[in-house]
Amino acid sequence: DGGITQSPKYLFRKEGQNVTLSCEQNLNHDAMYWYRQDPGQGLRLIYYSQIVNDFQKGDIAEGYSVSREKKESFPLTVTSAQKNPTAFYLCASSVPGQGPNEKLFFGSGTQLSVL
Amino acid sequence: SQQGEEDPQALSIQEGENATMNCSYKTSINNLQWYRQNSGRGLVHLILIRSNEREKHSGRLRVTLDTSKKSSSLLITASRAADTASYFCATDAEFGTSYGKLTFGQGTILTVHP
């Protein structure tokens, strides 16, 4: 089945630890995104990538890092510099040929909690 | 800052009734989209309306856009219990710091009682 796969579904981070959230898509989409969602809130953009080997900071990039070495993969690392990492993280991609701001496809999310 | 603001924050209705959710935004846009999110899941795209369109339909969904008032509404007709979810509007700013990115509102939680 085509889609976006996020793993793991639940992740726990210890103080001072870096953790990496996985996002893989087989939709052949060029653009990929990471959003953070806090309880009862909307989504805030962390990083986005419109093409392989290129990515841009979103509105809340501090304490996060990404890479885009392959079209299918856009992993997000939550570093120890992110002091409040507990949130629901969503990865998304957009339809080819329609630009980066139309009809996003989302993964099922990763809930990150601090131990 | 959030581009879209949604109203109401929560809506509770009976099955068969219509549900209306509103979204207001601040800057000129290229398009406005509505998404649905079931609890603990990712978002699903529902409908997109462009800045030169005033109304759009998709099944039981009707979206309106008033660019003079910088507002949009989503109407779900003949609601079902399965429509229970959070609904988000998202805007694609025409220019400014939000250009090239989708900005999401805080969402409306819809509960449809059987």
How far is the N terminus from the C terminus of chain B? Answer: 37 Å
Query: What value does the average pLDDT of chain B take?
Result: 90
Largest interface, Cβ cutoff 8 Å = A-B, 26 and 24 residues
The profile of the biggest β sheet of chain B is:
6 strands, mixed
Sheet with the most strands of chain A? 7 strands, mixed
Range of helix content of chain A: under 10%
Oligomeric nature of the chains: heterodimer
Number of strands of chain B: 11
Strand percentage of chain B lies at over 45%
Coarse morphology of chain B: globular
Radius of gyration of chain A: 13 Å
Indicate the percent of residues in helices of chain B.
under 10%
Mean pLDDT of chain A equals 91
Structural class of chain A: mainly beta
Low-confidence stretches of chain A: none
Question: How many helices of chain B?
Answer: 0
Task: Count the DSSP helices of chain A.
Answer: 0
| Number of DSSP-assigned strands of chain A | 11
Name the poorly predicted regions of chain B. Answer: none
Describe the structure.
The complex is a heterodimer of chains A (115) and B (114). Chain A has no helices and 11 strands. By secondary structure, chain A is mainly beta. The radius of gyration of chain A is 13 Å and the shape is globular. The N and C termini of chain A lie far apart (34 Å). Chain B is an all-beta fold and 114 residues long. Helices cover 0% and strands 57% of the residues of chain B. Chain B contains no helices and 11 strands. Chain B has strands at residues 5-7, 10-14, 19-24, 29-37, 43-50, 55-58, 61-66, 71-76, 85-93, 102-104, 108-113. In chain B, the strands form 2 sheets. In chain B, strands 2, 4, 5, 9, 10 and 11 form a 6-stranded mixed β-sheet that branches. A 5-stranded antiparallel β-sheet of chain B has the order 1-3-8-7-6, with no helix packed on it. The mean pLDDT of chain B is 90. The chains are: A mainly beta (115), B mainly beta (114). Chains A and B meet through β5, β9 and β10 of A and β4, β5, β9 and β10 of B.
